[in-house]
Amino acid sequence: VHARVRRNEDLRLLTGRARFVDDVQLPGMTHVAFVRSDYAHARLRRVDASAARQRAGVIAVYTADDLGDYGRPAPLLVAPPPITDLVFHTCTHRPLASGKVRHVGEPIAMIVAESRYVAEDAIRDVIVDVEPLEAAVDLEAAMAAGAPRVHEHLDSNLAAHVVQRKGDYAAARARADVLIKRRLLYDRGASGAIENRAIVAQWDAQAEELTIWDTTQAPIPIRNGLAARLGLLESQVRVVAPFVGGGFGPKIMMFYPEELLLPWAALRLGRPIKWTEDRQENFYATTHERGQVHEAEIALTRDGRVLGVRDTFLFDTGAYDPYGLTIPINTQCTLLGPYDIAHYESEFTAVFTNKTTVTPVRGAGRQHGVFVSERLLDAAAGALGIDRVEIRRRNLLAPDRFPHNHEIMFQDSAPLVYDSGDYLPTLDRAAQIIGYESFLRDEQPRLRAEGKHVGLGIACYVEGTGIGPYEGARVTVEPSGKVRVATGVGTQGQGHYTVFAQIVADELSVDVSDVRVITGDTREFQWGTGTFASRGAVVAGSACHAAARAVREKIFTLASQLLDVPPDALELVRGRICVRGAGERGFTLAELAGKANPLRGAVRPGTRPGLEATEYYGPDRGSTANGVHAMLVEVDPETAMVAIKRYVVVHDCGTIINPMLVDGQIHGGVAHGIGNAFFEQLVYDEQGQLLNASFMDYLLPTATDVPPIETAHRETPSPYNPIGLKGVGEAGCIPTGAVFAQAVEDALGGSIEVREIPLSPDKLFTLIEEAERT
Amino acid sequence: MNLNGTFTFSGPRAAVWDLLQDPGVLAKALPGTEQLARTSEDQYQGVMKVSVGPVTAAKFDVTVALKDKVPPQRMAMQIDGKGPVGFTRGTAAVVLHEQGDGTTLMEYTSDVQIGGRIASVGQRLIESVSRMMMRQALEGLERELAARLGAEHRQP
Q1: Which of A449, A510, A629, A651 has its Cβ near the most Cβ atoms within 10 Å?
Q2: Which secondary-structure segment (H or E) carries A90?
Q3: What is the pTM of this model?
């Protein structure tokens, strides 16, 4: 722990030997293509697959009619938290559309063929006869009276309505010297993982076992859910999530239609079956994270103390809501940020629209909340004539206020309590690194005199991470002396094979490279939930720690028995346990592992063989990381292009396991955030057609758009777990939009106000033009 | 998408009108038309091949239903196209004005929706491709018209 250790997984990844789902090739394997809806909203009158079934090489074509009861809607993945007067309408998707299609790309029929080529060709043989309907696309229009209804059994497109309150906002408002209101928009795009989704399913009739390779972030819940739905024992189903090329949230969604259909068809056909999503399907059929429209108000005293905030927002949940309310509740909770806000009232309405279903994407609504609070503070600073950093300093929670209960409910159905934090030094450090004061005093006026429009942005955020319920790990010292760690979470490139190894290596005094980590295979470890909410290192890491501790105890106990000395007379150094001060009296871990598993003779009653232990870790609630991002930008007012000159992140994720990996997480997150701030937006027309479903038109930031990122770390350990960990996976992308907005405004001398992210050169150009006209 | 405009044909209105009722002529004039047949008095069915940016030679089964016909002045059309890469549907209207100098002015308006894969990868180019196809079609019709009128002149 704390060491900049090279990653155990990189040799396999960099030499192309890592297995991804699409690498799985099985004899007799069949291939799948899906007939998907071209319409955002339409009644399905007839689906005729008879011609497709006649095509040479087609093995089967399934429509909703062929599925019977298996075609029922998918389960609700996350039930809404117990909040008073909460309204939630569960409308989950079916494996194949029946009666109606509700977004472009919704699957209508599944074609199984001898090759993907044949399957794709057969798509055109399927006759899909539809009656197009008007689509609900714009959020506010979808809530207006008479709007087309996505789900006709409901009275409107309202999917959920939630109010959470803390203190008494009305009273705070009455006391305020200043009230500032803003309408703020925040849209979010696709996850853009380098690997699209892929599934291979194989039914072994002799062993009566179903094996599924799946690009999921949650192999164990996938196994459990599929076993139940298919009528198999959990022990008959093995789900393997091998190396996965980026998760970012959509791969924690379950159950995707394809995930339900391939195993079902493998059982029916008795042949292995494979589907790999193509990039275009990924734009339609893999979940997005989408827009929110906020009407927010902040009440302050004259000297910039925040008395309270009221926020009302609409949240676009897309066509279905299988993931419950995780995103808008994250928004609601994260809006409070690192600030001491005594009075808060937040109301949201989740809205069904004829767009791809919305589930968490890295940040998962947190960036929406941070955007609102940071924009309000910027507007307040301007109105009150207070410096931007100073107004934040005046409102940060002081270190003696932890644990801090915000009195509202978080996404994990536990109250929003910050475990620990020390926010002011984080802000000061960021301001110092970016050179806040000297920039404003000297550099900016000098550059402006040269005709350069350079600006600075700085914003704070918190990230609720490491939520329950639990994860587990099994640690085994093999007879070779090498250590094997198995845990249930899946890995998508985060470096689990290294950080879990570091935690275990520390406890067992072995080299990190001698610890082999296995994740994401239900046969290796069968209890746990998955990789989400920046919880892998915190929750599974703590479980690895607990299991390693238990093995360490076993090592000491057994050695003490064999050497006939008390355990506290022993020491474990570099893979060898021996009597302290008498190094020749002892065993290597390899020797001891052999002795822990004797072939003959008697052992004491109650002995558990091997140097092995399984332990679990489940926190009461998550731990809260925090940070400050600052950036310098230069805006070209002629072209409205923005160049990011510097990017600084000061981050506190508690105890750091591997600084190199934390930096890597932050770098990737910032790139994601920059994409969200200025490049990426999914554009729909008024009929609900996605107009930029390819990387030709959907722009991801490239290496030239992402500047070198300067990071600094602070460590305020979490009291909720033994190592003091907090998560870091989403931190890089949470405040990026807010910082970008502030920096661009600053560069243009405050002549414009940014109330919308993503910005783009053309939106910024329009803002500059409008400002020049008035 | 709205596609509106005017075009002047070098011939009398009645001749232009007749041209527009002849599936053989339309099939030749409309770019990418592989088949076109009149299936009833006011209905045409055919297959068109369209290329928009990265979507090349995409086939569409097209049905055109004529409505509100007032020969030789005006007609409206309901257009429905479907293919493996998406769909198109919408309405169009054509009005023909006799110009008095032997030419005919055509005013056309259309409101067409495009959906599916062709919309999601080709949207940057759909409008310019549509305009280009419209221009090619009108120029093709103009050539047909000239050929017809020329033939009539030679015959007597």
Answers
A1: A629
A2: none
A3: 0.94
Phi-psi region of A516 (alpha: psi -120 to 50; beta: other; left: phi over 0): beta
Provide the strand spans (E) within A205-244.
209-214, 237-240
Q: Which residues of B touch A696 (CB under 8 A)?
A: 54, 121, 124
Tokens matching residue A612: 């092995």
Tokens coding A506: 């520390």
Instruction: State whether A687 and B115 contact (CB < 8 Å).
Output: yes
Q: Is A770 left (phi over 0), alpha (psi -120 to 50) or beta?
A: alpha
Task: Give the ipTM.
Answer: 0.83
* Inter-chain touch B115–A39, beta carbons under 8 Å: yes
What burial class does residue A414 get, using C-beta atoms within 10 Å of its C-beta: 0-12 exposed, 13-18 middle, 19+ buried? middle
Tokens representing residue A326 in the block: 């995780």
> What value does the mean pLDDT take over residues A355-368?
97
Chain A: closest CA distance from residue B10 (Å): 39
Query: Percent helix, strand, coil in chain A (nearest 5)?
Result: 30, 30, 40
Tokens of A756: 């919308």
Beta carbons within 8 Å of A594's beta carbon, 6+ residues apart = A479
Which long-range contacts link B36-44 to residues 24+ away (Cβ below 8 Å)? B42/B66, B42/B67, B42/B69
The label of the residue with tokens 């930029």 reads A692
**Span A602-655, pLDDT tens digits:** 888 888 899 999 999 999 889 999 999 999 999 999 999 999 999 999 999 999
Residues in chain B: 156
Across A340-365, b (16+ Cβ under 10 Å) vs e yields: bbebbbbebbbbbbbbbbbbbbbbbb
